[in-house]
Amino acid sequence: MPENHTGYRISVVDEDPLRARKDARELLAALAEADSTAKLDMPEPGSLTGSFDKGGPSVETVGLLLSAGSFVAALVQVWLARIPQRTIMVKRPDGAVLHVTGKEAREDDTLIERFLAEDGGNGTATG
């Protein structure tokens, strides 16, 4: 994933790379009208992305790069809340990361929006 991107990165996390890609494309389609700069951020073919278990990749992360904004954050929140078993990672330009599941998105309908609106320094937040 390009580290020089100055906007926000939302990654779909899944053990099944095909499902992660499908979900990322579905999320991109939902965001396309609200953020015309949004684009897929696919791992390089053969790259070792995600978490590792017993020497091999076990989780695929397929990301979206976007400029964000409250409307975009709300769309992401709504999309994620529809899929309780899905996990995404949201990364701000300052490096802070939020891991949130669809269940958490359903329980707190402004979680992603508040995270993206925060100015605060580096760190990791867990939703």
Short description:
By secondary structure, the protein is an alpha+beta fold.
Q: Keywords for this structure?
A:
127 residues; alpha+beta; two-stranded antiparallel sheet; disordered N terminus
Question: What does this protein structure show overall?
Answer:
There is one protein chain. This protein is α+β, with helices and mostly antiparallel strands and 127 residues long. The protein is built from four helices and eight strands. The chain has a six-stranded mixed sheet with strand order 2-5-1-6-7-8. A two-stranded antiparallel ribbon has the order 3-4. A hairpin with a 2-residue loop joins strand 3 (52-53) and strand 4 (56-57). The protein is globular.
How many helices in DSSP terms? 4
| Cα Rg | 14 Å
Low-pLDDT parts are 1-5, 47-58, 121-127
Beta-strand content estimate: 25-35%
Strand segment tally: 8
List the secondary-structure elements in sequence, H or E: EHEEEEHEEHHE
The helix/strand class is alpha+beta
Q: What is the oligomer described by this structure?
A: single chain
Helix content: 25-40%
Strand order of the largest sheet: 2-5-1-6-7-8
